[in-house]
């Protein structure tokens, strides 16, 4: 494969030397395009030696070969690592004032960027808006990781390790194993109104559902994400041309949206935390102390949405549910008991796949990391994952792919 590696001006440029080495060792033809600034960190001879190709930063070199567009046209993949805040802004605006800029405009190949900058610059609304635009255009991101930054600071902004960028880059080249599949994912937590300002809700942030949506889109699926009360920040990672988002509030709204989506989907993943009960009566005005003491709320049971979807599933459709299980009281986890409870839940709901997720006060909900076991048909463990919610999402889609074959 022809791979262009754009290197921009950050200290992490030295790590990209190793990235180029990994790519050439794997048999790829690599052309490095540093920016002028990048050359202040790692010099031209290093890039030429490591890539075994001539390296230039300027659109005025090698004009006879129309190098300013030829490299982009011939590329099967373009990686920008590190991608500084400045380069990300230039990419968003489509600036073409150097060879990397023209190459990025001339290419139709997948583009993978590995941002690297200080946490403040990464979190700045300008950078976040640029990232959202790039994602919506199909640019893939690796990182940034949370960790030590130049100057002794720490936070999000550290460039991912070369091995991780290498893996993500090759994944971008591989045909997606969800190509052509239509999937529906629910995310977040429902809110059942008590009065105009209060509700019964839960602590689900929607992060796991968002990770499932973007993972599926990047693997080729058309995704409908039904988001129950998910914040903009969480939804930001799902910006992708193949992800469509519908916002819902209550369990009844979620049910209606999922039923409609399921009618057109090859796989349905219910990652949303659905309220099992709703107040029987919803006051149309805010309840006050003057309206009398409120010591109890009468509840009615909500339908089990995923059980209904499984009952009415289309031929060949794969239905995935989650089981959020808390460990035994007293802190001791009886693993056998927990798994048996999960298997009973899988049978009761009639779902093909059940993702067993142990939640406590500091795991699962709201947190970035997760540990799950995945039950397939008959309750057999067909996968497991521990790590980021994106890792968990990957393992879940792996299980769906196996079942759809
Ligand atoms: N779910 C659903 N409709 C409901 C409740 C839950 O579709 N009314 C789905 C969730 O989206 C999740 C799965 O069912 O995929 C498991 O939810 P969980 O709360 O663990 O199970 P419950 O059926 O509520 O069982 P219990 O609370 O008794 O453990």
Tell me what you see in this structure.
- With 405 residues, this protein is of the alpha/beta class.
- It folds into two domains: 170 residues, Flavin prenyltransferase-like (Rossmann fold), CATH 3.40.50.1950; 223 residues, Rossmann fold (3-Layer(aba) Sandwich), CATH 3.40.50.10300.
- It contains 14 helices and 19 strands.
- Strands 12-11-8-13-16-17-18-19 form an eight-stranded mixed beta sheet, sandwiched between helices.
- A hairpin with a 5-residue loop joins β18 and β19.
- The longest helix is centred in the C-terminal third of the chain and has 16 residues.
- The chain is elongated.
- The chain starts with a strand and ends with a helix.
- The model has no long low-confidence stretch (mean pLDDT 91).
- The structure holds cytidine-5'-triphosphate (CTP).
- Cytidine-5'-triphosphate binds next to α12 and β16.
């Amino acid at each position: 494969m022809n791979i262009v590696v754009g290197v921009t001006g950050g200290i992490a440029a030295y790590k990209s030397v190793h990235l180029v080495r990994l790519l050439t060792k794997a048999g790829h033809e690599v052309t490095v395009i540093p920016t002028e600034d990048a050359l202040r960190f790692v010099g031209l001879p290093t890039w030429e030696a490591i890539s075994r190709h001539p390296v230039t930063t300027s659109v005025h070199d090698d004009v006879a070969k129309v190098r300013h567009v030829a490299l982009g046209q011939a590329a099967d993949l373009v990686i920008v690592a590190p991608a500084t805040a400045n380069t990300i802004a230039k990419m968003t605006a489509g600036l073409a004032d150097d060879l990397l800029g023209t190459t990025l405009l001339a290419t139709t190949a997948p583009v993978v960027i590995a941002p690297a900058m200080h946490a403040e610059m990464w979190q700045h609304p300008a950078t976040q808006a640029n990232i959202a635009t790039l994602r919506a255009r199909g640019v893939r991101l690796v990182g940034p990781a949370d960790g030590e930054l130049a100057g002794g600071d720490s936070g999000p902004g550290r460039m991912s390790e070369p091995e991780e960028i290498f893996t993500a880059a090759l994944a971008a080249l591989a045909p997606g194993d969800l190509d052509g599949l239509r999937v529906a994912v629910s995310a977040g937590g429902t809110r059942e109104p008590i009065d105009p300002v209060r509700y019964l809700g839960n602590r689900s942030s929607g992060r796991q559902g968002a990770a499932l949506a973007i993972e599926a889109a990047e693997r080729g699926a058309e995704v409908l994400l039904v988001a129950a009360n998910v914040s903009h920040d969480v939804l930001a990672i799902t910006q992708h041309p193949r992800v469509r988002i519908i916002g819902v509030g209550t369990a009844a709204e979620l049910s209606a949206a999922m039923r409609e989506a399921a009618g057109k989907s090859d796989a349905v993943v219910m990652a949303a935390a659905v309220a099992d009960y709703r107040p029987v009566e919803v006051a149309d005005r805010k309840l006050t102390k003057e309206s009398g003491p409120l010591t109890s709320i009468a509840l009615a049971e909500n339908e089990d949405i995923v059980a209904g979807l499984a009952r009415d599933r289309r031929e060949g459709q794969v239905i995935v549910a989650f089981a959020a299980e808390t460990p035994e009281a007293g802190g001791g986890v009886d693993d056998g008991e927990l798994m048996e409870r999960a298997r009973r839940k899988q049978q009761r709901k009639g779902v093909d796949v059940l993702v067993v997720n142990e939640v406590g006060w500091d795991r699962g909900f709201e947190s970035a990391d997760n540990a799950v076991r995945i039950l397939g048909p008959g309750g057999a463990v067909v996968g497991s994952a521990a790590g980021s919610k994106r890792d968990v999402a990957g393992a879940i889609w792996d299980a769906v792919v196996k079942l759809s074959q």
